[in-house]
């Protein structure tokens, strides 16, 4: 009765990869979901289904990946969302126009400047403000402008839709 | 019986905590137990439970430990914490209060 061409473990592994490709679901959570999926598969196997049918029924019961990730998304802190957003825009942009390397260099300069600027402010140096305004501000503006194509358009669309919701 | 989304959302926490009050358990078993307790009427979507468990863990109502299943698979078990037990009794009192208020208003029969 078993379909010999069907590799259950491989199918489960593939399902895990699809779930993990959604960045709301962290890899530390996958073992738990995997155990659940196997429990569900075993349940259907005990009811007389073959591996393939049991797998199919089990992933149906598991729900859509979007639905699962939507629930996980609620657990993220604001900072995590912001990091994912920042990482997402940089990664998207890197794919489109320039090499990942140059994006990393650009981001590194910006962050280095930010760190120097803030450390000077903390130390209460007199030139702190001028460093922030002469180095940090232009760099961040340059950074945003360089990211404006594609990713930036997406950002502003997102912000615009938020704003129009407030004013409705 | 039909349960609204809001009702399910409000009832998951006390149910999970009450199940864990009886001893450590894991996601799949919790879903099965809820199904049995409700005679098959309350069926939670599989994917929704784990994020809720993680939220309860963050609030320190429950603790998680990794263990091994009968078949040797890695399995995450959840346990009720002292704080969680307190929350459970608090929530039970709230539901009992609501129940008694509704009974006073419309009685507990189905007429």
Provide the descriptors you would attach to this structure in a database record.
heterodimer, A: 168 residues, mainly alpha, 2 domains, 8 helices, 80% helix, B: 111 residues, alpha+beta, Arc Repressor Mutant, subunit A, two-stranded antiparallel sheet, 4 helices, 2 strands, 13% strand
Offer a quick outline of the entry.
The complex is a heterodimer of chains A (168) and B (111). By secondary structure, chain A is mainly alpha-helical. Helix content of chain A is 80%, strand content 0%.
**Any idea of the CATH topology of chain B?**
Arc Repressor Mutant, subunit A
Helix fraction of chain B, binned, reads 55-70%
CATH H level, superfamily name of chain B: Winged helix-like DNA-binding domain superfamily/Winged helix DNA-binding domain
Whole-number radius of gyration of chain A?
A: 24 Å
Shape of chain B: globular
Q: What percent of residues of chain A are in strands? A: under 5%
Distance between the termini of chain A: 60 Å
Mean pLDDT of chain B: 91
Structural class of chain B: alpha+beta
Radius of gyration of chain B, in Å, reads 16 Å
Helix segment tally of chain A: 8
What is the straight-line distance between the termini of chain B? 17 Å
What can be said about the biggest beta sheet of chain B?
2 strands, antiparallel
Which assembly state applies to the chains in this document? heterodimer
């Amino acid at each position: 009765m078993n379909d010999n061409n069907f590799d259950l473990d491989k199918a489960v592994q593939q399902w895990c990869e699809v779930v993990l490709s959604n960045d709301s679901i962290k890899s530390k959570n996958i073992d738990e979901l995997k155990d659940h999926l196997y429990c569900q598969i075993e349940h259907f196997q005990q009811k007389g289904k073959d591996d393939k049918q049991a797998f199919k029924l089990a992933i149906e019961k598991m729900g859509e990946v979007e639905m699962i990730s939507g629930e996980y998304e609620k657990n993220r802190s604001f900072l995590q969302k912001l990091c994912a957003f920042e990482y997402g825009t940089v990664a998207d942009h890197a794919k489109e126009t320039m090499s990942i390397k140059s994006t990393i260099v650009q981001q590194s300069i910006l962050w280095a400047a930010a760190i120097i600027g803030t450390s000077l402010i903390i130390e209460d140096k007199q030139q702190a403000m001028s460093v922030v305004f002469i180095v940090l501000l232009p760099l961040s503006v340059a950074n945003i402008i360089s990211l404006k194509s594609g990713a930036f358009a997406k950002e502003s669309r997102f912000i615009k839709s938020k704003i129009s919701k407030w004013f409705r | 019986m039909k349960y609204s989304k809001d009702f399910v959302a409000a009832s998951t926490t006390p149910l999970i905590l009450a199940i864990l009050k009886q001893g450590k358990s894991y996601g799949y078993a919790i879903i099965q137990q809820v199904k049995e307790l409700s005679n098959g009427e309350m069926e939670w979507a599989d994917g929704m439970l784990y994020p809720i468990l993680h939220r309860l863990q963050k609030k320190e109502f429950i603790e998680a430990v990794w263990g091994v299943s009968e078949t040797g698979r890695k399995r995450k078990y959840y346990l009720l914490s002292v704080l969680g037990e307190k929350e459970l009794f608090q929530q039970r009192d709230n539901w009992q209060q609501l129940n008694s208020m509704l009974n006073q208003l419309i009685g507990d029969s189905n007429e």
